[in-house]
Design a protein that fits this description.
By secondary structure, the protein is α+β, with helices and mostly antiparallel strands. It has five helices and 13 strands. The strands form four sheets. It has a five-stranded antiparallel β-sheet. Strands 10-9-8-11 form a four-stranded antiparallel β-sheet. The two termini are 28 Å apart.
């Protein structure tokens, strides 16, 4: 696909999103930067953006093989990927396979304790409210979504977890937890998974070593899952 990178739309900690000459598509650029962009001190690792883009592209295509359509279009360059532009849902999901971080503290569990069953939690994406946890009743009562939306999110989260957890386990890795976001138009969803600075990152580093023989980088790949036919999930 011949896309021309135009104005910068959004800049995050380690990624930039650019408009293109085709309004329905964008270019996601993975940078070598690390840390919080709001802080004056910045850190970068040479080659980090290329690794992030490579791992993300691999995982996108892997999910596609299991009939989980994504907004990933193609890898445009070592650090750029073409994606479809989407409007995001107000609620995100976090899937836990292991008690860690805030989840472990909330339930007074030992950090690193494996869970007998995956836990899916939902949060309203509103920093002014400290991103509160919500359930299906909250979503419907407050106008953030329908019951069917939350049920579809549950199916997407469960399937994505099963597919990726199996991939990690076959390589001797542990998928600790991940975050999903969704698209809001009609009944179409997008999920975004970001590795966070917890054991998941260490696992993905090992995954990179197995796949590309490159290690010793802290990475932050992004996954977007685009579900057009929810009944197939």
């Amino acid at each position: 696909m011949n896309l021309e990178k135009l104005e910068l739309l959004v800049q995050g900690t380690s990624k930039k999103l650019f408009a293109t000459n085709r309004p329905s598509y964008a270019i996601l650029e993975f940078t070598d930067d690390a840390g919080n962009p709001r802080e004056s001190r910045k850190t970068s690792f040479a080659g980090k953006g290329e690794i992030n883009c490579g791992v993300s592209s691999f995982l996108f295509q892997y999910l596609e093989n299991y009939h989980v359509p994504t907004h990933f279009v193609e890898r445009q360059s070592p650090t750029d990927m073409a994606v479809r532009r989407v409007d995001m849902f107000d609620i995100k999901a976090i899937v836990y396979n292991v008690a860690t971080g805030e989840f472990a503290r909330r339930f007074r569990l030992d950090d690193g304790r494996p869970l007998d069953y995956p836990v899916v939690e939902y949060f309203l994406k509103d920093p002014a409210l400290n991103n509160p946890m919500v359930n299906e009743s909250h979503a419907v009562a407050l106008g953030y979504g329908r019951s069917d939306d939350l049920r579809t999110m549950q199916r997407i989260a469960t399937k994505t977890n099963a597919v990726l957890k199996s991939l990690f386990e076959r390589r001797g890795l542990l998928l600790v937890e991940f975050e999903l976001e969704f698209e809001s138009r009609a009944i179409i969803f997008v999920s975004v998974m970001n590795s966070r600075p917890i054991p998941v990152v260490c696992g993905i580093e090992k995954l990179i070593e197995n796949l590309t023989e490159i290690a010793h980088y802290r990475i932050n790949p992004v996954l977007s899952v685009h579900i057009a036919n929810c009944s197939s999930v």
